[in-house]
Design goal:
Elements (H helix, E strand, L loop, with lengths): L1 H20 L24 E8 L3 H15 L5 E4 L13 E6 L6 E8 L5 H10 L6 E4 L3 H13 L9 E4 L6 E2 L7 E2 L8 E3 L4 H14 L6 E2 L1 H9 L14 E7 L3 H19 L9 E7 L11 H16 L3 E6 L4 H14 L7 E4 L6 H4 L16 E5 L23 H17 L10 H9 L19 E7 L10 E8 L5 E9 L5
Parallel strand pairs: 1-4, 1-5, 5-6, 6-9, 11-12, 11-13, 13-14, 14-15
Antiparallel strand pairs: 2-3, 3-4, 7-8, 10-13, 15-16, 16-17, 17-18
Length: about 500
């Protein structure tokens, strides 16, 4: 009898584990599967579907704040955010946008993505509704933009025009598993996709253009030291070889963002070489691959340690020059690698300039600078890219949930610019709200001055922002404060200073 009790006990323990491991569902047990149920659109109104994960609350707040900010430059615009922040996590937040004197309203609704409801589920549900949205807004990252574009492209039947796709912040130029399968992100849902941010290639072009025009940042051999070396070559001794400034380019192979941005930086570098910018005769390139981006908060992994050792060793043995380190990475691996390089070569202020894209947000230096990355501790200039002004605090900006001024304004200003472009496309100067996606797409392509190229990517060459973080040593040579400056490229291609901040000194 006892033996049977043990058999029954083991079965009771093992069977549920087996069901979980094999993902078998028992009828009548477990939580009901969630279903994508888009809301009805009132007669005369139109909808845009904002598809983001349930954890994107802060991004939604800044998106809403961006529309409120846009209202300041469009007095006729009416923005109603009374239902934008709801207590229930399962409810659908809604931002209502109107135009004075017109009855029709544009409703922007946050349909949430999670494990049970994917972008494809929402696309199918929206296509089955009696009226499709004018546009689907999403693509907070490149992988999510790919999923959304493919889901929209696969859905051929709609009860009306197929919606446009508005990509918010996904920057990848090319997507795919390998070179044979790669295609441009905006071509996945062809002729109906618009990207409101800059691409990786545009970021690389802008950062390298800025560095090339900044005499105190561009990579170069220090001529005075080079001339002294030539003059010091006595009779019978060969003159020293004329060395070229060195460019180190690092990528993390397991990070698609790092790989794509790394490739775009190299293409931009060669392009500027051919155009006479950072000239071919002016640099030598060392490409360095790091297999994995997994590591500690500050402690680099083994491959990062070896890469840092190589770079630091090369800098010590190179002739007097300012080298450039291209660092396409997110904050954590970038911080680890730079920290390891600095520990091996602490006196680098004139010997190295570090450039990157938008993977290191300004908030990593600004809001989180006191505990995550103390700005004064970095002894080398850092040049990074932002899609809009990150220090545009003024009386017109109020964060919805009372966030302090230490937050970067980049995302808010980006969404405000996005809102203005959408408003211009949705609300013609005469008549009411556009009723068809095809008409909205045509208006966006016909916009003057143009905001998008014919493929739907945002136009480059103007509007890009670059941030420089320059170390400011104390009189005794100790690491002190740093100066953060923001620059914007205007329509002439010139870089104009937008603002600057002095960040606090490093605490012992």
């Amino acid at each position: 009898m006892n033996r049977f009790r043990w058999v029954i006990l083991v079965a009771l323990i093992c069977l549920p584990v087996a069901f979980l491991a094999l993902d078998w569902r028992i009828p009548g047990f477990g939580a009901p599967t969630s279903v994508a149920r888009p809301l009805r659109v009132p007669d005369g109104d139109q909808e845009m579907a904002w598809l983001h994960t349930t954890t994107s609350g802060s991004t939604w707040e800044r998106f809403v704040a961006g529309w409120v900010r846009a209202q300041a430059t469009r007095p006729e615009l009416e923005v109603d955010g009374s239902n934008a922040f709801l207590d229930s996590t399962t409810a659908v937040p809604e931002l209502i946008v109107g135009w004075k004197g017109r009855e029709s309203r544009l409703r922007i609704r946050w349909y949430k993505l999670h494990n049970d409801i994917t972008a494809g589920d929402w696309v199918k549900a929206l296509a089955a509704r009696d009226r499709p949205p004018l546009a689907v807004i999403g693509g907070g990252s490149s992988d999510r933009a790919v999923d959304l574009a493919r889901a929209l492209d696969a859905q051929k039947h709609w009860n009306g025009d197929r919606p446009a796709l508005f990509i918010t912040t996904a920057t990848a130029d090319d997507v795919g598993e390998n070179s044979r399968e790669k295609s441009r992100l905006v071509d996945l849902y062809d002729d109906r996709t618009f990207r409101f941010c800059f691409t990786n290639r545009q970021m690389a072009d802008a950062v390298l253009d800025f560095v090339d025009k900044a005499l105190d940042l561009r990579p170069e051999v220090f001529e005075l030291e080079a001339l002294r070396g030539i003059a010091g070559a006595g009779a019978g001794h060969p003159k020293p070889q004329r060395h070229q400034p060195h460019v180190f380019s690092v990528q993390w192979n397991d990070d698609p963002y790092s790989s794509d941005l790394h490739e775009q930086f190299q293409r931009a570098l060669l392009s500027q070489t051919e155009a006479g910018g950072v000239r071919q005769t002016a640099f030598q390139l060392s490409r360095l691959d790091i297999p994995f981006s997994v590591g500690g908060f500050l402690k680099p992994n083994l491959n990062e340690q070896e890469t840092a050792k190589f770079i630091a060793g090369q800098i010590r043995t190179l002739p007097a020059q300012r080298s450039m380190l291209i660092l396409p990475a997110a904050t954590q691996p970038a911080r680890r690698l730079l920290q390891a390089i600095v520990e091996r070569s602490p006196r680098l202020s004139r010997r190295l300039v570090v450039v990157t894209g938008d993977g290191i947000p300004v908030n990593a230096l600004l809001r989180d600078g006191d505990f995550a990355w103390r700005a004064g501790a970095l002894p080398v200039p850092l040049v990074l890219f932002t899609h809009n002004d990150p220090i545009a605090w003024d009386d017109g900006i109020r964060w919805p949930r009372g966030a302090g001024d230490s937050n970067s304004t980049e995302e808010l200003m980006h969404f405000a610019e996005m809102a203005r472009v959408i408003v211009d496309g949705c609300f013609p100067t005469a008549g009411g709200l556009v009723e068809r996606s095809d008409d909205l797409i045509a208006r966006l392509h016909a916009r003057r001055p143009a905001f998008f190229d014919p493929n739907g990517d945002r136009l480059g060459g103007t509007g890009e922002h670059v941030v420089t973080l320059l170390p400011r040593d104390d009189a005794d040579g100790a690491r002190g404060s740093a100066q953060l400056s923001v620059w914007r490229r205007d329509a002439t291609g010139a870089w104009k200073g937008v603002g600057r901040l002095n960040l606090g000194a490093t605490k012992p």
